[in-house]
Please model this.
Amino acid sequence: MKKIVLVVLAFVMAGCSALPDALAFLSTPTPGPTDTPAPTVTLIPTREKTDTPDPFALSTNQITPAAQETATSSSQPATPTPTLRPTITLEPLNPQLFTPSPNLFLFYHVSANQLVWGGTCEGARSILFTVQVATAPRLRYVLLFYRLQDKYSGRGTEWGGGAIMKDNDQGTYFYRLELEQIEDYRNFLDAWLQYQFVASTAALKVLGRSVVDRTSVSVTHCKALNP
Model:
């Protein structure tokens, strides 16, 4: 009996010494700091507010320059282009204005290309004609003839004037024509001042004529300049 007690006691002692190992086997070990993986931080991009869109960004991203130009041109009314009033075709010159002869007129010049009348605008009220004439036998006078022709209706005056031009004894002749000397100029809103030089003898026999200038000088009312 005493031996049985000793055996049981020895068995119990052996079991107590193995108890910590059994408890360690059954329990779940707590991982140390190195066993726990570091958490991965994923950044979430902040979403911009879209409640109030930027009107400039919207215009830049959605409308191309071509589309914008088309939209602008289609939304605005077209500006009307003023139609210029066409001038008439000049009538044929009277054959009597030509004289078969050598060309005596070498050079001519006018001091202005427009005379104006009326009190509401500035402009020339006279024009100086200067002409260089070649030496010719029996040449005594150089005369200035002129007329008016309306630029739009074709209506005109008869040739007149016949003003005797002064000379400097060196073949240069000149004459200043005043606006008041032009007949019926007040009946023309906008007209051409057509002119011609005529060389003659002392007996007024024609020696030669210049080509008629038909469109280089105008006589115009202020109303036509500033409608």
Observations:
- The chain has four helices and ten strands.
- The radius of gyration is 56 Å.
- The CA atoms of residues 89 and 157 lie 16 Å apart.
- The beta strands are 105-110, 114-117, 126-133, 141-150, 160-164, 166-167, 172-178, 190-200, 206-209, 218-221.
